[in-house]
Design goal:
This protein is an alpha+beta fold. Helices cover 51% and strands 31% of the residues. It contains two helices and three strands; from the N terminus they run αββαβ.
Length: 80
Protein backbone atom coordinates (compact mmCIF):
# COMPACT_ATOMS: atom_id res chain seq x y z
CA UNK A 1 0.00 0.00 0.00
CA UNK A 2 1.43 3.39 -0.93
CA UNK A 3 1.91 6.08 1.78
CA UNK A 4 -0.99 8.18 0.51
CA UNK A 5 -3.39 5.23 0.67
CA UNK A 6 -2.15 4.36 4.18
CA UNK A 7 -2.77 7.93 5.33
CA UNK A 8 -6.27 7.91 3.81
CA UNK A 9 -7.03 4.59 5.53
CA UNK A 10 -5.77 5.92 8.89
CA UNK A 11 -7.97 9.00 8.51
CA UNK A 12 -11.03 6.88 7.72
CA UNK A 13 -10.37 4.67 10.76
CA UNK A 14 -9.91 7.74 12.99
CA UNK A 15 -13.12 9.34 11.72
CA UNK A 16 -14.98 6.09 12.29
CA UNK A 17 -13.65 5.85 15.85
CA UNK A 18 -14.67 9.45 16.57
CA UNK A 19 -18.16 8.81 15.20
CA UNK A 20 -18.42 5.70 17.38
CA UNK A 21 -17.20 7.68 20.40
CA UNK A 22 -19.76 10.42 19.73
CA UNK A 23 -22.49 7.78 19.57
CA UNK A 24 -21.33 6.23 22.88
CA UNK A 25 -21.20 9.58 24.68
CA UNK A 26 -24.62 10.52 23.35
CA UNK A 27 -26.07 7.19 24.42
CA UNK A 28 -24.60 7.31 27.95
CA UNK A 29 -25.60 10.95 28.41
CA UNK A 30 -29.17 10.03 27.43
CA UNK A 31 -29.96 13.32 25.70
CA UNK A 32 -28.43 15.56 28.38
CA UNK A 33 -25.83 16.99 25.97
CA UNK A 34 -27.18 19.08 23.10
CA UNK A 35 -25.31 19.64 19.82
CA UNK A 36 -22.65 17.11 20.81
CA UNK A 37 -19.67 17.10 18.47
CA UNK A 38 -16.38 15.26 18.93
CA UNK A 39 -13.46 16.38 16.81
CA UNK A 40 -9.80 15.60 16.44
CA UNK A 41 -7.41 18.52 16.79
CA UNK A 42 -3.83 17.43 16.24
CA UNK A 43 -3.14 14.80 18.88
CA UNK A 44 -6.16 15.81 21.00
CA UNK A 45 -9.83 15.01 21.12
CA UNK A 46 -12.16 17.98 21.56
CA UNK A 47 -15.69 17.69 22.97
CA UNK A 48 -18.19 20.39 22.05
CA UNK A 49 -21.82 20.88 22.99
CA UNK A 50 -24.14 22.24 25.66
CA UNK A 51 -25.61 20.76 28.82
CA UNK A 52 -27.41 21.87 31.95
CA UNK A 53 -25.29 19.89 34.40
CA UNK A 54 -21.65 19.38 35.28
CA UNK A 55 -22.52 15.70 35.76
CA UNK A 56 -23.27 15.30 32.04
CA UNK A 57 -20.05 17.11 31.14
CA UNK A 58 -18.04 14.81 33.43
CA UNK A 59 -19.85 11.76 32.08
CA UNK A 60 -18.72 12.70 28.56
CA UNK A 61 -15.12 12.91 29.81
CA UNK A 62 -15.41 9.52 31.48
CA UNK A 63 -16.77 7.82 28.36
CA UNK A 64 -13.95 9.29 26.27
CA UNK A 65 -11.32 8.19 28.80
CA UNK A 66 -12.65 4.62 28.65
CA UNK A 67 -11.85 4.55 24.91
CA UNK A 68 -8.80 6.84 24.71
CA UNK A 69 -6.74 6.68 27.91
CA UNK A 70 -3.54 8.24 26.60
CA UNK A 71 -4.95 10.96 24.34
CA UNK A 72 -5.19 14.61 25.39
CA UNK A 73 -8.83 15.51 25.92
CA UNK A 74 -10.31 19.00 25.81
CA UNK A 75 -13.84 19.04 27.17
CA UNK A 76 -15.32 22.27 25.84
CA UNK A 77 -18.91 21.26 26.58
CA UNK A 78 -20.57 24.38 27.92
CA UNK A 79 -22.70 24.14 31.07
CA UNK A 80 -25.52 26.66 30.73
Amino acid sequence: MNPSAQKDTAIMIAVGRLFDLERRVSSRAAGRIRNLTIESLGDSIVLLGETNTYFAKQLATQVCREQFRDVALLNNIEVI
